[in-house]
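Look over this today:
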Amino acid sequence: MPLAKDRNTLRRDGVQFSDPVAADTLIFAGALVCLDASGNAVPGATSTTLKARGVAQEQVDNTGGAAGDLSVESRRGVFQFANSTSTDQITRADIGSECYIVDDQTVAKTSATNTRSVAGVIRDVDSNGVWVEI
């Protein structure tokens, strides 16, 4: 049904999130945070079922806790991560392409034969790492 009067429509900026942390999970500040198949926050890892969410703004230690006992604040944007090595090393020629999650601080050029989830889009590469838009 269409509006018949003014409405206070709630808004989010779409860059900051608070998600329940998976059971028995430790997430370090600055880690790449992903959502697992249940929608719980976990650190980035080699997996085909994770969805990149952002970078942890704090350390959250839910070791020994149940899923959702604690929440983690994460932020979307463009962040610098460690570059993979060898044939998976990202170069400037890869800018604009997707990259893949190796762990909570490293990204790679390939999915390693469909064993890694997408981290985001490569926005820049320099001597310190890979700038990824999540």
Observations:
- The longest strand covers residues 118-126.
- The CA atoms of residues 12 and 47 lie 29 Å apart.
- The chain has a mean pLDDT of 97.
- The chain has two domains: 17-75, 78-133.
